[in-house]
C-alpha cells in the first residue's frame, strides 16, 4: 500500500501556522484538490471529501468504520480541513461523530485556529460551542516571571451585567468591586500582524500616561484569549453622544470643554522622553466623567515620537482606521506629520461644539478630507457673538493648512483661559446688571404702593 504521504491530497488552504512556503506552494489551487486515484486509503478520502463539502460521502465512510480523527502526515484531520474551507455542515457532522475539536497539527494549529485564520465566523461559533480552546494569545509568555505587572486574570472580570459602550469593541464589566470599561480584541488579532502591533503599542503607551484629562489605564489581559484592555469607566458617555443630544453649546461651556481636551493633549504632546501623537482625536474618543469634565481616550492608532520629529504611516490611512471628518490633510495625503495633526482635529471639535453639527455634515465622509486638502473649512454659521473674544481666530489658527502655523496646545491653553475669563466676567457683569434692574423695579413698586407707605409710618 502507498504511504499516506504519497496518497495525500493537495489542498489549497493550508494550516494557519504552516510555514510561508507551504502557503506559497498552494497558490493557484485555491479550494481545489487533485483528483484522487481509485483504491485510495479511505482515511485520505475522508480528508478529500471534507475539503469538497461532501457530507453524504463522509457519512458513508464513517459508517464503514473510518476513523474520524485520522491524521495525515502533517497531523491534520478532516475537521482541520473543513474548518479551513468554512464547511459548516461538514464541521457539524464531524463533531457529531466524535471529532476531537482540539487536536493540533504538526505546527500546533487547531481547527479553531484555522477557522479564525480564514475568517470562517460560523465555523468559529460552532467550534466554540463544542469546547474549542482559543489559540495562545500573541503576547503569551512561557515564564511566569515574565507576566507583566498590569496583567488581569479574566476570571476577575464579571460581564454578567455588561453593556456595550459606544463602539462595538468596548463594553463594561465589574472588576474588584468597581465598574470598568473593557476593550475586547477579536479573533482577527491572532492573524493580523498590524493589529497585534497596534495592540502592543497601545499597551506600551497606556502604561506611561497619568493625567486627570486622560482616561486611566487599569490593566490588561494578554496571557489568554480574548485579549483585553481595561480602563476606568466613565458612565456619562462620549462627547459625540452628548453633542448629538445637546446640539450647540454655550460658549462658556464649549471653552470649558475645550480646556479639558487641550490640557489632556498638551500632556501627551509634552510627554518625556517621547511625545505622543493621538492621531484619532474626535468626539467619540473624548469621554465625560461624573463631574462633567472631559478625558481623552482610545490610543489604538497613537504614535510615539521616539527619535524623529515627524512620523509617516507605513500605508495610507483608511476610513476604518479613523474618522475622515477630523483628520488633518497631511494624514489623508499620507505625508509625514507631527503633533500638529491633533491641533487640526481639535479645531474642528471646538467649532462643532459652537455650531452644533459635525464638520461638513452635509458631505459624504470620504469627501471631507478632500475638501481639507483643497483648503476648504467648515463654514461659521453661528452668530458672531458666539465666537467673541478671539474664539473664531483661534479656531482658524488651529486648522491652518500649514502645520507649523498651528499653535501648540500650551499656547492654546493660554488663549482659552483668557477667553474663558472674559466670558465669565461678561456673565458676572450681566448678572449684576440684572440684579440692579430687579432692585430698581422693587423700589419703584414700593414707592408707588400707598399701603407700603402707611405700613412704614405705622412701623415708625
From TrEMBL:
Domain of life: Eukaryota
Region entry Disordered, spans: 1-34
InterPro entries given in the database record: Ankyrin_rpt, Ankyrin_rpt-contain_sf, Kinase-like_dom_sf, Prot_kinase_dom, Ser-Thr/Tyr_kinase_cat_dom, Ser/Thr_Kinases-Pseudokinases
Example GO molecular function: ATP binding
ANK repeats: 74-106
Similarity comment: Belongs to the protein kinase superfamily. TKL Ser/Thr protein kinase family.
Record-given protein name: Protein kinase domain-containing protein
Organism: Rhododendron griersonianum
